Amino acid sequence: MSTTLLFCKSKVFTHATTNPADNIPGFLVITKSPEVSNKDSQISWIPENSLQPSQISWLNNQDMNFGKISSPTESTANLPSTTTNSNGATTIPLSILMNFNFQITISSLYSIECRPPSPNGWWYGSTILNLKDNNKIIQTLPILFFHDDICPSTISKKKELNKTFTPFINGGDMYYGAIDFKNSLAKLTDLQRTLVAPTVWLINPTLDDLRNFSPNTSAPDARVEGGDDTTSGSNSFFWNNVKWTVMSQIAEGTNKASSFISGLIRQHPVIKFIDQNKDKIPMDNPYVNSLLQNPKVQEIQEDFDSARIYLAKWALGVKNEAENYQIDESYRRLLMNELNEQDMAGAAAGGNDNFGFEIDMDFKFTDEELNNAIQRNFPLTRNKWDSFFDSQGRISITIDELKDYIVHGGIEINLNDDKNELRKEVWLFLLNVYPWDSSFDERSQIKETLNDSYLHLKTIAINKEYDDMIDATENKYWHDQIFRIEKDVKRNDRNIDIYEYNTIDGLPPSSANVNSDDDNTGESASDENEEGSDHWHIKNPHLLKLKDILITYNNFNPNLGYVQGMTDLLSPIYYIIRDESLTFWCFVNFMERMERNFLRDQSGIRDQMLTLTELCQLMLPKISKHLAKCDSSNLFFCFRMLLVWFKREFKFNDVISIWENFLTDYYCSQFQLFFILAILQKNSQPIIQNLNQFDQVIKYFNDLHDRMDWKDLMVRAELLFIKFKRIMDLSEHQKEQNVMLKGPDPSSSSSSGVSTGLERHRNANASAATNIDELNNESRRAETSNYPCDSKYLQLLLSRTVVIQKEGERTKEAVK
Q1: Which of 195, 409, 424, 547 supports an S-S bond with 379, CB 3.0-4.6 Å?
Q2: Is residue 525 situated within a structural domain?
Q3: What are the φ/ψ torsions at residue 411 (nearest 5 degrees)?
Q4: Are residues 609 and 584 in the same domain?
């Protein structure tokens, strides 16, 4: 079985003692066996004294190859033969690899520390490999020193960089040998630079690791509820207390370090001579020119300039992080003041009228809750996503850990990836097309099976209008459904690139055929969506696929059929997936949770509106009472937000980010209600101070389109949920205490909480009379209940199980 060579660097030393004669040269290599994942690739250090001359020459050639420098011309007759695997990658002979001094897997590393060399060559650049605490194989590893002055690949690359006057590489790092090693690791695993120690890079860190090394700190007046500030039981709080002390010391010492290095270089006799005589000796003096052109003098000057640039960039980075910290700190205080203001308002008004339950005026979020909600600086990257999978393609971390990245960082947007490949992979899991515990092979089989199933369903649906076996009434209904679908598809998101042009390839029409009458003439949204201009044929391939998917779904779920608004839900999914078959099954699974929004009797959307009303009364009593005075207590202005999940309120790309937060069900399956609650909370003051009529409220919320910051609202929604859960737990506790003191409340036995709520939501075929009776019973229970925990609607908000409510059987008399 062949082992692939992924990286090789020569002249990497271990310094056994302070005596240079005891330094041991060797090769640092990264290798990978075919049966393991990238994160289990092996890092090995092979000393030169354990190798044959031919093996050393072979590794030297590989060092030059990986440095992307042409190999030196030399005879290769006595070198080990270079073989490649089926992918064209170089394989390393086992006879070489078995001579390693130490060998570890990348996954066993916690971090690496890359220390740059002295600008004037007084010390070498080095790398320290820090193992995870739970690794018992090797306790300590030697520090690896990169002797760049004798490493052929590093010397060659430095020459190339000097030709372009670029002493830096990769966004500001001064180039030296360890940079090549770090960059190779970054291709195989998630490598994250820490901000409190810029030379330290975390290897495949958890989100908690990233938070612990984040520059954000807790607010001075934020305390941990129910515990001592100094004994909160987490290492993250230790870092929160010390990390910015370290950063401030670095910033303070930057000027000193710059002056120190400047002084050292200026003490060199040559530099001192030039400085002392630069005003006395003309610059056209041959002796001075000869001196300045001396390679040693130029090297000293280049080192000095490089050191100054490096320190300047370092200081700028520290300054930017300090400014970001100040912004985050102000934001923290703003959130705490605004969210706690609702408590003060509710308490001043004498508690909550609907529940008779008072919220503690001294409510505080813990430091960890605030930090987790606000810190959203670590998106899910391609390297991080790949690191989650083992060699069989199964996710090797908990699903909650994975979802934590999506909720608190989102999915990284790669500007060079216009097809959203990473987001596509993630959404196929979020929309339950692929099971979370599936392997590569299983997902491949699932994709093939689903594709065959979709093609079969599509064929039946597309040919249905030509079926002579269906009666006239059904045929008329079917043609009406197709007409509705085509009409909505024509108007769908025509400002988005893939939907904009009605050409056979979906691309902008060429100037040669703009005025022609052939089939490729382009028609854009501006001239197609005018009133009464629906009598044109769809040619855009993406719009045609949307149409086919909706027609197929209409036949797949005949009881529901097509309802206006479904195109709004399908469009973002197709935009991400870009595969007709997979998009269809994503949409099928998405509609499992969204079908209740389109029921003919509107019972599903009504239940959500009732839940939102109770939630607003509990969490935002002040604005709830004001909306009641404006005849808006039913929150009718939120109807469209719920129906198509904010598709009309935010920009297209923002909607995608919002949806993937909701689809995680990280906190609960109805988190969209807390997002609306955040909108209400954010806009409470302007509404209370300026609006007093129903039509004013409607117009105000309609005008919020493209004017809201979804990231801020998501932070608020998270904190509101945390607060809500705390209130529900507290009400349950108070209820239990009162029951012990006064005995059980007869009305509480009829209010059964989550299980009853789930049962009711899933009982899709209940009769209208039963629904009315249930509503009457709920009203009577609400009048006698004093605790939020007695509300089945509020209890259901704590569940992460998706609420599913199906349409009843369609009859010929059903109005669509």
Answers
A1: 409
A2: no
A3: -105, 130
A4: no
One domain, residues 650 and 580:
no
CA distances to 236, 632, 636, 703 from 628, rounded to whole Å, are 44, 5, 12, 21
For residues 315 and 254, give the distance between their C-alpha atoms in angstroms, rounded to a whole number: 6
The four Cα atoms 509, 515, 520, 523 give a dihedral, to 10 degrees, of: 70
Tokens 């060998």 belong to 103
Same domain, 624 and 670: yes
Beta-carbon-side half-sphere exposure of residue 622 (alpha carbons within 13 Å): 23
- Count the domains in the chain: 3
Write the DSSP symbol of residue 395.
B
Residue 212 in domain: no
- Band (pLDDT 50/70/90 cuts) for residue 776 is very low
Residue 554: its pLDDT value, please? 93
- Write 76-85 long-range contacts (CB < 8 A, 24+): 78/54, 79/54, 80/54, 80/55, 82/58, 83/2, 85/2, 85/4, 85/34
621 and 474 in one domain? no
Max CA distance (Å), the chain = 107
Neighbouring CB atoms inside 10 A of 24's CB total 16
Q: Which helix (H) or strand (E) holds 669?
A: none
Residue 569 pLDDT: 96
pTM for the structure as a whole: 0.74
Q: Which tokens sit at 349? A: 């008004």
Residue 678 exposure: Cα atoms within 13 Å on the Cβ side: 22
Least confident of 54-68, 335-349, 511-525, 700-714: 511-525
| 527 occurs within a structural domain | no
Q: Which of 262-271, 580-589, 785-794 has the least mean pLDDT?
A: 262-271
Among 92-96, 140-144, 165-169, 737-741, the range of highest mean pLDDT: 92-96
Last residue of a domain, one of 205, 240, 274: 205
Expressed as residue numbers, the domain containing 10 is: 4-68+89-205
Q: Has residue 360 got a pLDDT over 60?
A: no
Asked whether residue 548 falls in the same domain as residue 654, the answer is: no
Co-location of 158 and 26 in the same domain: yes
End-to-end Cα spacing for the chain: 63
Print the SS3 string covering 403-437.
HHHHHHHCECCCCCCCCCHHHHHHHHHHCCCCCCC
pLDDT digits (tens, 9 = 90+) for 507-530: 888 744 444 444 444 455 444 444
